[in-house]
Amino acid sequence: MIPTPDLSHLTEQDKLHVYDPAEDTFLFLDALEQDAEDLKGEKPLICLEIGSGSGCVSAFIGSILGSTNTLYLCTDINNRASDCTHRTGRHNKIPLDPITCDLARPLLKRLQRSVDIILFNPPYVPTESEEVLSAQLGRGISGSWAGGTNGMEVTNRFLETVEALLSERGKFYLVTLDGNDVPEIRERMFRAFRLQCQIVAQRRAGIENLHILQFSRVNR
Ligand SMILES: C[S@@+](CC[C@H](N)C(=O)[O-])C[C@H]1O[C@@H](n2cnc3c(N)ncnc32)[C@H](O)[C@@H]1O
């Protein structure tokens, strides 16, 4: 059992503005723990989390990998999330490097085919498109869930870039729910980028059925 990162340093103010780890986060941790031996065996050099929020997921993978030279990059559009991620890293003795930006935009050219682990628990809740637009512009807590059509408007933008970032042996983990149309995502990623997909964890949370998808190159 790898312990859940200690988040006791986060304040009520932080929780008002930054996504508080919930069922989806914990399912994500379970899936990563399940893959712990494989992940360690790959000796990853760069781990990139998109939308790191509190920093819980990156701190967790840091404790799975133990003391290594891995670079932990974490992006979020919400400035306060970057601050929480930094403090969570420090509090748990994992060197997390947060960057406040949209998805992986400033890293795309510099990290081509070099990221060994990519993690994304995106805003996946289906909403009106106007809602996702204002949530993305507002860069606050509603950016944590507002996902627009099929809950996929933010995720789809990232899916277009993920293959260019993944290293040869890279793995990309994505949180989804039924409403996101998982079969369509799998088929599209295979057809467009030759990325194969496995569902590595699944759990019902209230009315939602959550999954963790893991993508890797076909010709590994
Ligand atoms: C569901 S929360 C997940 C937070 C954390 N990773 C977890 O699992 O608890 C989604 C996160 O994505 C961030 N986010 C939303 N749109 C983003 C974008 N365009 N670029 C980067 N981060 C984004 C939100 O601010 C939020 O922190």
TrEMBL record:
One of its GO terms (cellular component) is eRF1 methyltransferase complex. PROSITE patterns: N6_MTASE. It comes from the Eukaryota. Keywords: Methyltransferase, Nucleus, S-adenosyl-L-methionine, Transferase. GO terms for molecular function: nucleic acid binding; protein methyltransferase activity; S-adenosylmethionine-dependent methyltransferase activity. Residues 47-128 form the Methyltransferase small domain. GO terms for biological process: methylation. Gene3D superfamilies: Vaccinia Virus protein VP39. InterPro entries: DNA_methylase_N6_adenine_CS, Euk-Arch_PrmC-MTase, PrmC-related, SAM-dependent_MTases_sf, Small_mtfrase_dom. The keyword Nucleus applies. It is found in: Nucleus. Its main location: nucleus. NCBIfam families: hemK_rel_arch. Belongs to the eukaryotic/archaeal PrmC-related family. This is Methyltransferase small domain-containing protein.
